[in-house]
Structures are given as C-alpha cells and as structure tokens.
Amino acid sequence: MSDEFSHWDHIYKNANLEKVSWHQQHSTISFNWIVESTKKQDAIVDIGSGVSILADNLLAAGFTDISLLELSTQALNTLKTRLKKSTDKLSFYNENILDFESNTTFKLWHDRAVFHFLTNPKDQQTYLQKLNQYLEKDGLFLLATFSPEGPTQCSELDIVQYDVKKITQLLGDRFNLLKTQSEAHPHPNGSVQHFNYFLFKKK
Ligand SMILES: C[S@@+](CC[C@H](N)C(=O)[O-])C[C@H]1O[C@@H](n2cnc3c(N)ncnc32)[C@H](O)[C@@H]1O
User: Distances from the Cα of 32 to the Cαs of 27, 138, 142, in angstroms?
Assistant: First the structure.
C-alpha cells in the first residue's frame, strides 16, 4: 500500500467531506465548460474524482458516459453508493493515474486539483503520456490547479502552482489553449483559495 494511497484513504475515511478545502456544492466552472464544449454522449473522465459533485451535476444534465478514476478505494465506494441509480452511465477505476491502462479513450479529460500534486518532473511526464494516450484527437483537457496566488500546499502535501505560461510550456505543442479562468474558491473555513482553470484541445 503506497503512502499516497494511505494519505488519501485516511482522509476519505475520517474527514468531514463537506469541510475539506476542495469541497464544492456545485462544479461551476468545470460543469459549465463541459456542457459548452461536449455532447451528452461523449466519453468524459474525471481524474482523481474524490467524492466530487461533478458526476452528479453531469448526470443531472443528461450525460451518459462518465468515468471516475480515483486512488482512494474509500472515496470511490462513497461515489458508487451515492450514484448507484446511474451505474449504467458510469465506469469506475480504482487506481493511480500514473499506472492507468485501458482500451478506452476519452473526449474530455477533467482534472481538478490532482495534477498539481505531481511535483516530480518524471511523474508529470508519465501523467502527460497517459493524457496523450487516452485522450482522443481533438479531445479536451480541462485542468484546474492552484494559481501562483494560491496555496503552496493542499491537504498538507506540496503542490505545483500553474499559470498559463507554465502549463502551456509543460504541455508543449501537442495542445492548443482554448481558454483560461481564475477562481477564488471559497474554502469551507471562510478563506479563499485561488485556482486557475485551463481548457486545452489536443491537436
Ligand atoms: C484535492 S482532491 C480533489 C478531488 C476532486 N477532483 C474535486 O475536485 O473535488 C485530490 C484527489 O485526487 C486523488 N489523487 C491524488 N493523487 C492521485 C493519483 N496519482 N491518481 C489518482 N487519484 C489521485 C486523491 O485521492 C483525491 O481524491
């Protein structure tokens, strides 16, 4: 069992999940961008879904092909129970994205507050190789990370902050940036956390 798995599984077993810093009552920017840029039957994957409300929001809007990939077994089981009426529209992957292997490809790859935990360039490149392999040509990469105005840690782990320049340099010429937006995410403790959202199209 990896330290990383234990860290996250412990949180999902013990924390009040409506009080964790990344909690959202609605997926706002992610949801709006997905609705604007995809069709309801497109294959969408949420990397490091946690117990995010995104899948609930997409199901309610009529999306029919949603994959949820998550390291923590506890988090994924919580989602499976919560979404049990919609299992025909859902696929679950209990694994580390860095080890992901599948025959499936996706039209849209969503990542909110997961990629930014990869502080090691080798892990970042492995993630980007998976993204490139499993995202369809002309597919969309919707990424949300802490911005340079945001925290340097999330869940007591170091993260990498991204702005447009840094993320476009890292992605290289395989992706075109379609749009970006900043968000002051309200932390349940009353403070704010500054995020940047990026929408890229694969060439
Ligand atoms: C800060 S939470 C964000 C959860 C969710 N994306 C949201 O916006 O509510 C980070 C999530 O990523 C998961 N995670 C971290 N590293 C991962 C990895 N290498 N592969 C898959 N999931 C990972 C954690 O278990 C946790 O659920």
Answer: 8, 19, 11
Ligand 1 site, residue 50, Cβ cutoff 6 A: yes
| Count of beta carbons in the 10 Å neighbourhood of residue 120 | 10
- The verdict on the CB of residue 96 being under 6 Å from ligand 1 is yes
Q: What is the largest CA-CA distance in the chain?
A: 43
Rounded to two decimals, what is the model's pTM?
0.97
- Do the beta carbons of residue 52 and residue 26 sit within 8 Å? no
The span from the CA of 128 to the CA of 121, in Å, is 10
C-beta 48 within 6 A of ligand 1: yes
The tokens 């970042």 sit on which residue?
A: 124
Protein residue closest via CA to atom 13 of ligand 1: 48
Q: Are strands 175-186 and 106-112 parallel, antiparallel or unpaired?
A: unpaired
pLDDT along the chain (203 residues), means of 10: 86 93 94 98 98 98 98 97 98 97 97 98 98 97 97 94 98 96 92 96 96
Please name each of the domains of the chain with its CATH number. Answer: 3-202 (3.40.50.150)
